[in-house]
Amino acid sequence: MSNLKLPAEWESHEATWIAWPNNKSDWPEKFSTIPFVYAEIVKYISHGEKVSILVQSKEHKLKAEKVLKDSDVSSSNIEFFIKKTDRSWLRDSGPMFVKEEKKISIVDFKFNAWAKYDEYKLDDKIPYFISKKLNLKRIIVEQNGKQVVLEGGAFDTNGKGTLITTQECLLDEKVQTRNPGFTKQDYFDIFKKHFGINNVIWLGKGIAGDDTHGHIDDICRFVNEDTVVLVQEENTSDENYTLLKENKERLQNIYLPNGSKLIVIDLPMPSPVIFKGQRLPASYANFYISNCAVLVPTFNDPNDRIALGILSEIFKDRKVIGIHSTDLVLGLGTIHCLTKEQPTIALLE
Predict the structure, then answer these.
(1) Conformation bin of residue 151: beta by default, left when phi > 0, alpha when psi is -120 to 50
(2) Contact 122, 86 (CB under 8 A)
(3) DSSP-assigned states of every residue in 215-276
(4) Please, which residues have CB within 8 angstroms of residue 125's CB and are 6 or more apart in sequence?
(5) Please, how many CA atoms are within 13 Å of residue 212, restricted to the half-sphere of its CB?
(6) Which tens digits make up the pLDDT trace of 12-43?
(7) CB–CB of 291/339 below 8 Å?
(8) CATH number of 4-348
(9) Cα(106)–Cα(269) distance, rounded to whole angstroms?
(10) Using one digit for the tens of pLDDT, what is the confidence trace for 182-210?
(11) How far apart are CA 211 and CA 261, in angstroms?
(12) How much is the average pLDDT of 97-126?
C-alpha cells in the first residue's frame, strides 16, 4: 500500500503557485490584457492563502508588482520566485504535491509540452526548482528506465482514492502520445504507487479545441468525495455534443470504493469561442478551488450565469466568482490550467 496520497483540490492549501505571463505567442494580439486577468485571479486567491509567483527576472517581477498594485491587490500574501519558464501553464508543468506520512513531498513527472510543442526544457525543471526552494523531498517517476510523462490537467481526484482521466489523453498511440506502449494497468500502477489511488474512472474524449488532446479539467471535475460536474452540450450540431454524451454514459453506473454511486451534475457549455477561425477550449469545468473562493472562467455568454449558479449551489462554503476569460482562453487554457495548489501541512494532523 502506498504511503503517498494526492489530496483533493478543495482540501486546505498552504499556497497556490502561478507563473506570471511572459510568452506573448500564447496570447496573440491580446497579451497586454492578460496580466490584468492574472491580477484578478491573484486578488481572490490571496484572500485565503499565499500566492507564490514565478517570474522571469527582477524586471519581470517589477512589472508584475505594478500590475498587481494598479489592480488594488495587496502584497501581504504574495511571494515571488525568479525562475525562467517557457510558458505559464503551471497545472501541467508544476509539481504534484502529495502527502507522505507527516510531510508534503513532490512527485516529479516529465513535462514535454503535451507531446506537441518544442519549448519545454525550462518548464520541465519547475518541480526541481520548487522542491529546492521549499526543501521538499522530490520523487522522480520512472518506468522501464524512462521518466513518465504526465500533466496535472490530465486527471482529477476526490482525495479518497479515486481518480478520473481520459483515454484520449493517456492512451492514444497516434496523436500526442505521452508514454508509448502504456496500458490502463501501467497507469493504474503509477497512480496507486505515487498518488494512493485504488480506483480509476476512464472517460473517452476531451472537448474540441483542446490542444492537450483530452485533458479532464475541461470536461469533468470532482466537487466532493462522491460527486462530479460534467460539461454537456445541448446543441446537437455542435462537435462536442456526441463525445460529451458518450462521457455521460460512461458515468451512469459508476460506484466508488466506499459503496456510494457516483453523483453526476451537468454543467452547460458556453457557445463556441472562435478567434481567427480557430475554436478555443472554452469550458466552465476549468474552474479552480482555492481556500476561500472558486474561480470560474466566464465568456460573455448567457450560460455564464447558469454555470455560476450550479457551482454556487455546490460550494456553499466558498464564494463562487466569475473571471472574464475570453482573452485568457486564447492561450488554449484558463484558470485551472494556470494554477497549482500546494497542500497545507495541517492536513497531516
Answers:
(1) beta
(2) yes
(3) -GGGTEEEEETTEEEEEE---TTSTTHHHHHHHHHHTTT-B-TTSPBPEEEEEE-PSPEEET
(4) none
(5) 32
(6) 999 999 999 999 999 988 999 999 999 999 99
(7) no
(8) 3.75.10.10
(9) 34
(10) 999 999 999 999 999 999 999 999 999 99
(11) 32
(12) 94
| pTM of the model as a whole | 0.96
Q: Which amino acid is at 272?
A: P
d(CA 164, CA 289): 17
> Alpha-carbon Rg of the chain, whole angstroms?
19
Query: In the chain, where are the structural domains located?
Result: 4-348
DSSP letter for 345, please: G
Question: For 149, which DSSP code?
Answer: B
Q: How far is CA 263 from the centre of its chain?
A: 21
d(CA 32, CA 38): 11
- Who's near 245: CB < 8 A, 6+ residues apart? 232
Whose cell is 494556470? That residue is 338
Residue 287's nearest CA partner among 317, 267, 301, 313 is 267
Rounded to whole angstroms, how far apart are CA atoms 25 and 144? 36
**14: region left, alpha or beta (phi > 0 left; psi from -120 to 50 alpha):** alpha
State the Cα–Cα distance between residues 321 and 327, nearest whole angstrom.
17
Euclidean distance between CA atoms 116 and 119, whole angstroms: 9
Q: Which residue's entry shows cell 529546492?
A: 132
List pLDDT tens digits, range 165-187: 999 999 999 989 999 999 999 99
Grid cell digits, residue 267:
454543467
Q: Which three cell numbers stand for residue 91?
A: 497545472
Report how far residue 182's alpha carbon sits from residue 170's, in angstroms, rounded to the nearest whole number.
8
